[in-house]
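=== Structure Prediction Worksheet ===
Name of assembly: unnamed complex
Input type: mixed (protein and possibly other molecules)
Chain count: three
Listed entries:
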Amino acid sequence: MSEIAIQAPTKEMTVTDDVMINMIGVHKWYGEFHVLKDINLTVHKGERIVICGPSGSGKSTMIRCINRLEEHQQGQIIVEGTELTGDLKHVEQIRKEVGMVFQHFNLFPHLSILDNLTLAPIWVRKMPKKEAEEVAMNLLERVKIPEQAKKYPGQLSGGQQQRVAIARSLCMNPKVMLFDEPTSALDPEMIKEVLDVMVELAEEGMTMMCVTHEMGFAKTVANRVIFMDEGQIIEENEPNEFFNNPQNDRTKLFLSQILSH
Amino acid sequence: MSDQKPTHKLGEHPDWAPPSITIGAVGWVRANMLSSPLNIFLTLLCGYLIYLSVPPVVQWAFLDADWFGTNRDDCSREGACWIYIGFWFKQIMYGRYPDTEVWRINFAYALLVVAAIPLFVPSFRWKGWLSVFLLIGYPIIAFYLFVGGSFGMEHVETPLWGGLFLTLVISVLGIVASLPIGIVLALGRRSDMPVVKAICIGFIEFWRGIPLITVLFMSSVMFPLFLPEGMHFDKLIRALIGVMLFSAAYMAEVVRGGLQAIPKGQTEAAEALGLSYWKTMNLVIMPQALKLVIPGIVNTFIGLFKDTTLVLIIGLFDLLGMIQLVGTNPDWLGFHIEGYVFAAFVFWCFCFSMSRYSQHLEKKLHTGH
Amino acid sequence: MAQGVSNSNRPAKPPIWNDPVYRALFFQFLVLGGVIALGAYLISNTLDNLARQGIASGFGFLDTTAGFSILMSLIDYSEENTYGRAFFVGLFNTLLVAGIGIFFATIFGFLVGVARLSSNWLLAKMATVYIETLRNIPLLLQIFFWYFGVLRNLPAPRDSAMVMESFFLNNRGLYSPRPVFEDGFALISWAFVAAIVIIIFMAKWAHKRQEKTGQQFHTVYASIGIIIGLPSIAAVIAGFPMSWNYPELTGFNFTGGIVVIPELVSLALALSLYTATFIAEIVRSGIMAVSHGQTEASYALGIKPGVTLRKVVIPQALRVIIPPLTSQYLNLTKNSSLAAAIAYPDLVLVFGGIVLNQTGQAIEVLSITMAVYLTISLLISAFMNWYNNKMALVER
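=== Predicted Assembly ===
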């Protein structure tokens, strides 16, 4: 554990000491390909972490390991005190508490928006239907599309679909939210409406890990930015330092490419 | 694991080999055959089924089989008697076609193969003309070769045709003739003219709604009634007409699928350039649609090729019909299984290779070449 | 303002021969005329031919005594019955073999389709080999193989293969025990009906309770318990009012029990094994059509694999599976007409074969036969259209 403490570089962060997610020496391979190399990362309650890096650097794989959509082969991942192992009970336990938003929304096309939202509360939280629908309507109001409740995903714009997807995760009242490039599949004019929802969520104190290239979002919201390349965490710092004074050459190169346009 | 001291600079972690248990033969077997108790059970069950079925079949078909000999006394009857197939090979391949004239069939096969090879050579430039030759010129040449009666060739009556030869004649002719009818029907079905559309839909749905066997019955008992007095068609020709109309309906649906896949913008662009309906179809839509439907045509052909066996019910002896016929020869009773296995093998080779070819074409289309 | 458009403001009319409307009308008129002329020509030829050959026409023959016997019949039938009744014998035999074929082909096809997607390499490969082998061999050849190659080569009744002294397989067919219902069996039937009613109510109740309180109820296990339990209790109360009539070897053949003739066995076997290969491919592509993201999203919400399958994967896969599946059912029904080749008395053999030969009324007989198949296929495509409209995903 002492090794982990050294890894956390920021001292002036206003976070409590509760550890939400703890990754210790995590390795993962796809066949012969070494995708994650010795990942050590601690996420505290209320922290908002933005992960960036070139494509294929293992960002998505890393956050997908946290709710075991991908399996790691070495090291430990502990979420809220429960270690992720092959034990299905643990996996279920963790997935209940960890919400995830995907690049391609992955709404269920055969269910109405309201049913998309209530499916998990009814079948996982064993919530009465009425109650689940109330929760769902509240959340739809929060993402500003309550009038779409009876429609189907195919009838909504990309931005609306992604907001529904966020609301769907929030229905489970998660303690952590994982975002896997939530705006990459959206048209430019729709990115803002999704980011607004995410900013609001951050202001309410949600613990978030977000893979994104939206540097504006990183600057305003994140309290830590992580840069990954070739399966490793190269640099992590609080946003101001990260953008104004990058330490590693690869970080500098990446930032110059991404900020030049 | 975590007490490994970092021996590398930040960000330069070397690639490690994955844990040995997840790779190589061991890892592969673990992941693909033994990953859970259920998986282990399934692997054992499959292994047992293979153990039960494969060795006896190999024993029968190869190890205990008799390969060389001239009559049934050379068969030990412990395994398969392939001498039976060898003995009747000519009948199974060519039916009762005269021995001295079989070269005509072989010549036609050879011509077809030689003419078709350039179609599969990507750099060959005259594919269009060659296709026209194969679709129009070749059938005429083949007709004169098979029927004879001119150019000093002996006339061979169609009742003598049989075996794999007849199977190929019916299926190839059926598919070639049904293509143009199918295209016309497909265009008709998509037309804006209600009368034309209704007639085409009625025609297509009628033939698709009835089994081929009733079509063949119809061709053998009803067609003669339709013809004026004194006009008479050969049984083979009647069956061919039935098969052709039947497969034209299926072909029409395949072509329609291809037409539907062409975006509306193509027609609009062609019309905007001032092309008439037929020019739009011939120059813009059809060339694209036909390329799309080649896999569908191959699949229709596979279906027709298998369905050709039904002609034995109206007394034409195709490959399967010939197998049935020689199976009733008093000198060679009791070799049904050998006959069926051989016929199955021949059909399988044709159908499997064609279906692989069509899958290959589909993949090529999907990747956009 | 609203003075109507004066004539001079309308687009000028083209000459009739260049007006697309008139061109279309003219062309359709031509096509219709051609079709009618062809039809009239064929009909007049046919009438001439019939008159010359002295063949009667009309459907009166249906009331004539048939005078031939039929190997197998689901309804009472003897030689004294009419051609009309023979028609129904054939029709029911067709429906029977199609029904059996559809039942087994569906079960087997689903199993093989799922097996082909299995993570177990051996199982997936075996499923592939099965599919690629049988679907590329003509169905008729397979029917012949089972009938002439296997079933007819089975031992004589005396040396039947037997299972538990009650099922016998020999070259005369498959013999199985027949249940004999005695007094008091009605109680069991009623218990069975009651069980079904209870299950329906229970499912409704469980659904309502879940909506209200969120508690889940294992309807499936409870249903299985009820459907087995209630009739069993009734059987105990009534004192087991049912016995089995076992097939027995008397002389050269078996008597008693239920006999399934080898023609039916081989036809049903070949139809189901052949069609199952196509169903397996449909099932496989249906499951594959549900994108991986759907299961991932469901898992990420914490929904268990079983519920994910039931609520997310299957509803989406079924939309893709059902339309081609019904067309396979239609194919199977049409293919059951191959019965004629091994003399299973289906519609085509009995009606299109024997009746046609005896009466010579080709047109009437074949029209009726085709009409039956056309009706079946129209019903199925009507169902398909209805289903597709109902299930179409709502898109923008």
